[in-house]
Amino acid sequence: MVLETLLVQTALKTIGIVGSTLWLIPLVLAGLSFINYNKYDPESQVMNAQNLYREYDFIIVGGGSAGAVVAARLSEISKWKVLLLEAGFDENEVSDVPSLAAYLQLSKMDWEYKTEYTGRACLGMRNGQCNWPRGKVLGGSSVLNYMLYVRGNKHDYELWEQMGNPGWNYENVLHYFKKSEDNRNPYLVKTPYHGKDGPLTVQESPWRTPLVVAFLEAGLEMGYPIRDINGADQAGFMIAQGTIRRGARCSTAKAFLRPVKLRKNIHVALNSHVTKVLINPANMRAFGVEFVRNGRKQIVTARKEIILSAGAINTPQILMLSGIGPKYELQKHGLPVLRDLPVGENLQDHVGMGGLTFRINKPVSIVQDRLQAFPMTMQYVVHERGPMTTLGGVEGLGFVNTYLGNRSWPDIQFHMAPASINSDAGAKVRKVLGITDELYNTVYKPIANKDVYTLMPLLLRPKSRGWVRLRNKSPFSPPLINANYFDDPFDIKTLVEGAKIAINISETHAFKKFGSRLHSIPFPNCRQFEFTSDEYWECHIRTISMTIYHPVGTCKMGPSWDHQAVVDPRLRVYGVGGLRVIDASIMPTIPSGNTNAPTIMVGEKGADLVKEDWLGGAYE
Q: Which positions, given as ranges, span the membrane (predicted)?
């Protein structure tokens, strides 16, 4: 056991988790478990190529939710040489445990970004800034996220095509959702909306509390059916599905890259921080990338294309450092202006109302002090079940419409979890969110380790738009991120209505059976408002403004006449040859749901667009 303990302690230190809490004890026991039961096989890790070629056919920057997909799919063409550059390292046995999602944030696997202070949101966080976790690891944010598999609404994609992007309608993108999917829920695979032969495993957590059943029953009481929210219609309630396999996280690295690691035509270079794309100003063609690896600057060139898949924050940063972006922004930092494009604009994110907590009388929720290390670990190891398989704590999803929306295109999503900010007695969740001591100690400390559940209303289609800009010309400085939450007053108005619906859900007969009641200690900064009034809820929302880690849109896809567009509908950067963007930054509007599955879809479709452009129909 000493050896296994050291293995896990090393893994914890590698990703930057230090210290020890009761909840990490099962992880020490799990070191042996992962090896003995083949949940995590170190031999299956992707090979980190040390000796690179000088030239490849394709260079992909970023091995995250989209980049891993693109690299694997392009390597299917055996005559193409593919290089994938990733700034982080490989995932490990710690990141494989679904319940430890929160522990990965603010670790070395996280870029640890923060939003700029606006005074309109994140007021209960330190310095009025929200933490914005982004994956700095092979698999990207699919390694840090809560694994929820949600595709969005069919109207989202019809809108994309109506905006001048042919080939991005719902029927077309559905093909790519299904292409990736290995759905292991028999009742869903039988429908025309799901796939079972793809590399990405999707299923429910094998463990759940009675509260998620109450959540489904509450939805029925309110007139919403229990349905597949990724199917024909979205409005309704469902037990959450996630990207997990045999109780462990199924990231895009695990799904797409590990199975192809023996291919001779793909190299993966980890710890490779790309600093710029090299562009020939004479013909405006991208021909290579500059990156720093182990403290040494290197250059690699591409015969065909360079593909940026670094995500909605890092992709615009790299483009601007390369001389592609708003003229005024580049000139401000003394960078050459090779192409004046609105890079970094159009930033969108799903903002939610965090901290809405409901007390219950029965011992059925996730309470850290009640979790017993040994039996919980044995459940996970031997039976691939138990609390350690939970999707970061989220058990139920609901899509509803306020009076401001409509039934066919819901405007509020609910994340239901059998826990809240108080459930770990302040050990981790408050730190991940960056909540101030005053707020935590006043509102949540009095109910530490008490049985609770939370309903988080999430704004599905925000009207507000933010931006990403350079802090300076150093590629190692974090960019400036202005989420610009609630710039449009319609957004806060919609979320207030979502809060009221959450209260109605909590008051259904299904939840009253557990003694459900609203935790009623008011926020210190909101005491001037009557508790539960619209004004109070607005103050609450502005205090704990929860990002759901869904930034998109900063390299907008659009037709040539769209002056806000950075890439065309085939994802090629306007005015620059040999350069394409394939990640969440190309989304013109944010999908109505969690964005990991849509980002993987963009990776699948983007890879096919590359194949079509270079091979025609020959690759099929």
A: 15-35, 56-74
Q: Residues 238-260: pLDDT tens digits?
A: 999 999 999 999 999 999 999 99
Structure tokens at 407: 């039934």
Question: Which residues are CB-neighbours of 497 under 8 A, at least 6 positions away?
Answer: 402, 403, 404, 412
Cα 244 to Cα 101, 250, 353, 389, 590: the distances in Å are 12, 5, 26, 8, 24
Q: What is the pLDDT of residues 136-174, one digit of tens each?
A: 999 999 999 999 999 999 999 999 999 999 999 999 999
Identify whether the C-beta of residue 453 lies closer than 8 Å to the C-beta of residue 362: no
- Supply 495's token pair: 């979320």
CA-wise closest residue to 363 among 505, 210, 165, 475: 210
Structure tokens at 134: 């982004």
SS3 per-residue string spanning 374-427: HHHHHHHHHHCCCHHHCECCECEEEEECCCCCECCECCEEEEEECCCCCCCCCC
Strand partners, 132: 113
Looking at residue 552, its amino acid is V
Q: What is the pLDDT of residue 388?
A: 86
Q: In this structure, is the dihedral angle defined by the CA atoms of residues 252, 257, 259 and 260, taken in order, positive or negative?
A: positive
Rg (CA), the chain: 23
Residue 19: partners with Cβ closer than 8 Å, 6 or more residues away: none
Instruction: Encode 24-68 in three state secondary structure.
Output: HHHHHHHHHHHHHCCCCCHHHCCCECCCCCCEEEEEEECCCCCHH
- CB of 28 within 8 A of CB of 3? no
List beta partners, residue 273: 292
Residue 358 corresponds to which tokens in the numbers above?
């409901």
- Residues near 533 by beta carbon (within 8 Å), at least 6 away in sequence: none
The whole-number pLDDT of residue 382 equals 63
Distance between CA 585 and CA 538 in Å, rounded?
A: 29
Candidates 267, 415, 540, 550; catalytic one: 550
The answer to whether residue 550 is catalytic is: yes
Tokens standing for residue 207: 């463990």
Residue 274 is labelled as binding a ligand: yes
Residue whose tokens read 């939710």: 65
Contact 543, 123 (CB under 8 A): yes
- The per-residue pLDDT for 25 is 36
Q: Which of 576, 581, 588, 591 is nearest to 67 (CA)?
A: 581
Tens-digit pLDDT profile for residues 81-93: 999 999 999 998 8
Are 309 and 319 in contact by the 8 Å Cβ rule? The answer is no
The predicted model scores a pTM of 0.94
pLDDT value for 100: 85
Contacts (Cβ under 8 Å, ≥6 apart) of 209: 364, 365, 366, 395, 418
Q: What is the DSSP letter of 294?
A: T
Q: How confident is the model at residue 7 (pLDDT cuts 50, 70, 90)?
A: very low
What is the per-residue pLDDT for 372?
A: 62
Lowest mean pLDDT among 116-130, 341-355, 374-388: 374-388
d(CA 442, CA 460): 30
Contacts of 386 (CB under 8 A, 6+ apart): 207, 375, 376, 379, 380
C-beta of residue 241 within 8 angstroms of C-beta of residue 203: yes
